Amino acid sequence: MPPARERDPFAARGTPEAAVAPVADPGPSTAEPPGGWQFAAGGRVILSGHEPYLHARFVDALHRCESADAGYRSVNASGALGRYQLTRTGGLRSAGMADGSGRWTGKYGVHGAAEFLANPAAQELALEDYMRAMEGYNRAAGNDRFVGTAVAGKAGPFVVTEAGLAAAAHRVGQRCVRQLLDILRANGWQHPDDLPALDPDTRDRLLAAETRLRTFAAVPYRHAG
Description:
- The protein is mainly alpha-helical.
- It is globular.
- It folds into 2 domains: about 10-135, no CATH class; about 140-215.
- The protein is built from 7 helices and 6 strands.
């Protein structure tokens, strides 16, 4: 069974990450990447002639955590866009869709937020590019060394997986994921009864990272081909 939508520790505090809502329809796109596409079950787009990089279960699980019913048209108060809630200074920059200043690069023919929201195919390709980049970030942080490690987590046991690392790093960043892994390792791979004396925002981010690691532990990451 795919993971249920996670309980977001940010939601109770009313922070922008939880404020996902649909935006007004920007109208038909004139900037779709080459090739046709069609909607699959669950509202996800499939690109004709394109071999997916990511497993459909991973993509759909990430969607449920990030944008739920709002889907490709969603945007939150912090400016995260689309089905997978990518920002111009974060995921879209890593995917090459935006430059270091947050300006759109025109990749996949997208030159603005409205075009991105109206272009499901570009969103799917951007997610693949971003996840490829995220794999490198997780390797640079040393997070990949812990794949296969069993953890006695706060809400139950889980195993660290590539899917969990990717989803957690998308949520809180690879450095926060490494911070959590170091804390768990120092505690014998058990969630400590009380997290170290950290500020509330950091504790919330660490809990969000663990939630992602656990809920994505059994989700396949790469497309089987």
